[in-house]
Amino acid sequence: MRKKLLISISVLSHWMSDFLPGAMAINRSERVRACCGALIGILVTALVSRAYLGNPQDLPFLIAPIGASAVLLFALPSSPLAQPWSILAGNILSAVVGVACAQLMGNTPIAAACAVAGAIGLMFATRCLHPPGGAIALSAVLGGTSIHALGFYYVLAPVGLNSLLLLLLAIAFNNFTRHTYPHKQQAHKKSIHKTEDIAPTARLGFNAADLDTVIKQYNEVLDISRDDLEFLFTQTEMQSYRRRFGQISCADIMSRDIISVEYGTLLEDAWLLLRKHKIKALPVLDAARRVIGIITLVDFMKHANLDVYAGFESKLRTFIKRTTEVHSKKPEVVGQIMTTHVHTANEDRNIVELVPLLSDKGMHHIPIIDKERRLTGIVTQSDLVAALYRARLTES
């Protein structure tokens, strides 16, 4: 009997464990940040709303569902359910549905059910799903005579006023605490299933089309944006590569015998360096050896108008030859044609993190810098391939 009781308790305990969500992987400071945001958001919203609306007995200056909105805006600011359109349109449209149901069907169970269902349907249709909207629609029906007396004014105040104030505070607080809000969304083009259109790294792992297909098959609302989901998957793949290939840093594989130039280096001299050392790029450094740009063969070709093969050699010779006149109509020094937006990497960065840059981005050279941002080396596609090959051999 005792054995059966223990088994029953064990089965019940296992079944009950499914009721608990997984542990949250956020640190203490993030939890405190969310609590402080909600504290400030609700307090200021309440004070401003009461100052604007007054404090009569029949008009609430703050509605309860705004507390649920605060949870989303401050604890889950990257959630699709917490974006500005979601809170403003979700709460306001839900209030409209709730008031309409209350006026048509009164304070009845059917009115309450229709209000919540109608609010969800309208939020789906207008892409503004916001869970507190269901509570706002329900409160418009069950709020009593004071709420019913307000009619559609309830939509503007307190619902609209509370929602707008809380949203403005969320924008200010989240960005002040280094949480980008509104959460940026990437524009996704329709996937074209051509091999040449797929990034090299995606040919070995999942790509955007794969993720879109799985999300469509899943067919449930996700409390995470598509971009964040893709980012997490990509970072998981990168972590897997780090584990497999080990902690090989940029400092371990970079070329240290660097040929570099300065802003004022003549184009003719820079071209001679490229030809002499048989390289395709030269980092451009300032007096403190910090990278301010990079000049490549592509930069020469682009600025010399070498997109047409006819007259290629003469055009190039004319372009790089220094001008003896005081005033020149063409670029004369490296700084005038260099690429100023340069991707760099720290010495201790894992080489796996360079793969997307050197493959998907089409880059051929990445300058490596130290903690003081001074140039210490350079990693090329050849360096990376050789390092990954050696790591694979070691693993085998």
Topology record:
Elements: H1 2-17, H2 28-53, H3 65-75, H4 84-105, H5 109-125, H6 132-142, H7 145-150, H8 153-176, H9 200-204, H10 208-218, H11 226-245, H12 250-253, E1 261-262, H13 267-277, E2 281-285, E3 291-296, H14 297-303, H15 312-320, E4 345-346, H16 355-358, E5 365-369, E6 375-380, H17 381-395
Parallel strand pairs: 1-2, 4-5
Antiparallel strand pairs: 2-3, 5-6
Helix pairs in contact: 2-3, 2-8, 3-6, 3-8, 4-5, 4-6, 4-8, 5-6
Give an overview in words.
By secondary structure, this protein is mostly helical. The chain folds into three domains: 28-176; 195-245, no CATH class; 251-395, CBS-domain. Helices cover 55% and strands 7% of the residues. The protein has helices at residues 2-17, 28-53, 65-75, 84-105, 109-125, 132-142, 145-150, 153-176, 200-204, 208-218, 226-245, 250-253, 267-277, 297-303, 312-320, 355-358, 381-395; strands at 261-262, 281-285, 291-296, 345-346, 365-369, 375-380. The strands form two sheets. Strands 1-2-3 form a three-stranded mixed sheet. A three-stranded mixed sheet has the order 4-5-6. The mean pLDDT is 85.
